[in-house]
Fold these 2 entries.
Entry 1:
Amino acid sequence: MPELDASERRAIEKLMPFHVTDTLDPEDRERVERALQDDESLRAEMAFLEALHGGVREMTEVPSSGELGLARLRRSVRQQRRRSLVARTLRPALALAAGLILVLQATLLLQPGEDAARLAGAAVADLQVTFTADATEGELRELLQSVDARIVDGPSAAGVYHLQLDPSPEDEAAWMRVLETLEDRPDIVTFVERE
């Protein structure tokens, strides 16, 4: 390795005390160790720093508050790195999941038909109906039960309710019976039409 220039040597010398206390990140540690391999004077200085550090440690029976704080800081940095790694690892997975949800939602909403609406959680209405203003809840319940219908939306601003039949009539004759049953109650129903 070529001889270090003055600025690189100063940078390595500044990092050496942290190397002794084992507080460098892996990149800086490798940088210092490469420099130590090729420079005898840096190795001598490192030996002095290690001896000094060892002597100071021997003299203190109880860890100093600085060392305790440093240990706490190291632990905090390690925990933060782990959290950061987990966040960086999960971020693409979460983005992919969100994208898939959007694609699924768009697919369901853009597909016409009753099955897509049911999958998306929307109720599919079979009939539009308006009721008289004086129709009671009991009368409405009785009428809706007689045709196996339930209100899935409404009233709109115009007073229109949307009904779903369960099951939906299979043939035209069954549809006509449902419509006739509702139309035969003008005291309750003022308008009825298939969706």
Note: The helical segments are 6-20, 26-38, 40-59, 65-110, 114-119, 137-146, 172-183.
Entry 2:
Amino acid sequence: MNIVLYPDPVLRQKTKPLKEINKEVFKKVEEMMELMHNAQGVGLAAPQVGWPVRLFIIDVDGTSRGEKVFINPIIVEELGELNKEEGCLSFPGITSKIIRAQRIKGQAYNLKGQKLEIEAEGLAARAWQHELDHLNGELFIDKMSPSSRLAISYQLKEFERLYKGAKAPV
């Protein structure tokens, strides 16, 4: 399992609800946690590892406390607005200011199949919104201002060039 990089088409696919929590799910989640921590990320969505299901993990404080896995998540309320720097593990080296809700209320299921009601603010709320976007085939570059997008256009073209090179027949 590896982190999928832009412009891989899997990043633009809408995901399907996860219907069963089994050993395979636990194994994939464990691998995702390891990948996310190794890449020093705070969140990772299933499509970012080529798995088209509605699941993401978030660990904003790097501890083992609290829920880290969110299955079939939805946001039920957004409050406030914050324009802060954001990055994405599928776009290494690229960051930009993105406007997101300051606080959110969400619902999801954990690995035990229990329904969770969460309230998050700051980085945790930003991570929830960012990862949920991935489940809908949306990327943080879609939320950049036109000037920010222009500023990274060379880097995006380089990702596209490398992707085409990797897919070219040998």
Note: The chain has a mean pLDDT of 94.
